[in-house]
Amino acid sequence: MIRVLLADDQKILRDGLRALLQSAEISVIGDASNGREAVEMALSLKPDVILMDIRMPEMDGVEATRQIKQQLPQTVIIVLTTFDDDEYIIKAMTYGASGYLLKDIDSTRLIQAIRDGMDGNIILPGRIAAKITSHLSGIGQSSAQADDFTEREIKIIRLLTAGRSNAEIAETLFLTTGTVKNYISQIYQKLGVSDRANAVIALRKIGY
Fold first, then answer.
1. CB atoms near residue 104 (< 10 Å)
2. Tens place of pLDDT for every residue, the chain, 208 residues?
3. What is the pTM assigned to this prediction?
4. 80 and 52 in contact (C-beta within 8 Å)?
5. Which domains does the chain have, with CATH numbers?
6. Whole-Å CA distances, 130 to 34, 95, 125
7. What are the φ and ψ backbone dihedral angles of 54, each rounded to 5 degrees?
């Protein structure tokens, strides 16, 4: 069962999300009312996924994302926000968030987005991807070049940048999921990044 932490300053929203997710057999293991609580609870509970609001008191969701991903890089963080705040979303993505959703999303898509995040997919509209690439040239930048990768790594990279999950890459290339994870770890190392979102950004910069 997927274990989720909710981080939002509106209790009524947290309560609604809890009821929705639990009805879909997704376990809500805690809820935080601000970014500082989100960091503390994440480090204590080690959730699989965090639904993170951006604008919260004491510490916003961007800084909370940065701190959590530094210490729990495997935790999937999905930004859940009322407004399409490009600057906040871009910063959260470069700190390792796996994507963002608007709060008016329907329940079926929200549940699927959580599962997609667990599968390694990036929930990122093309418009935001373009803004990240064009505005954040100094963040996540790497010295890797297109020809630094092996033929097998390039096949994985093409599927990775197309938004495929590890399981989908494994099925397409007739590999085990563990083998795909090992290749992706090597790709991360060559790029000098530690998460999927920044890997995709870096790969797009060098032409993939």
1. 6
2. 999 999 999 999 999 999 999 999 899 999 999 999 999 999 999 999 999 999 899 999 999 999 999 999 889 999 988 866 677 877 888 888 888 888 888 899 899 889 988 887 777 665 666 666 555 544 445 567 878 899 999 999 999 888 788 888 999 999 998 899 899 989 998 988 877 877 887 888 787 8
3. 0.72
4. yes
5. 3-134 (3.40.50.2300), 140-205 (1.10.10.10)
6. 30, 17, 9
7. -90, -55
Strands 99-102 and 3-7, sheet pairing: unpaired
81 contacts 53 by C-beta, under 8 angstroms: yes
How do strand 76-81 and strand 3-7 relate by DSSP bridges?
Answer: unpaired
Residue in the structure block whose two tokens are 């999300």:
17
Residue ranges of alpha helices (H) inside the chain are 11-23, 35-45, 61-71, 86-94, 107-118, 126-135, 151-161, 166-173, 177-191, 196-205
Q: How far apart are CA 65 and CA 39, in angstroms?
A: 8
Q: What is the rounded distance in angstroms from the CA atom of residue 192 to the CA atom of residue 4?
A: 29
Q: Which of 53, 100, 52 is CA-nearest to residue 72?
A: 52
Two tokens at 33?
């009312």
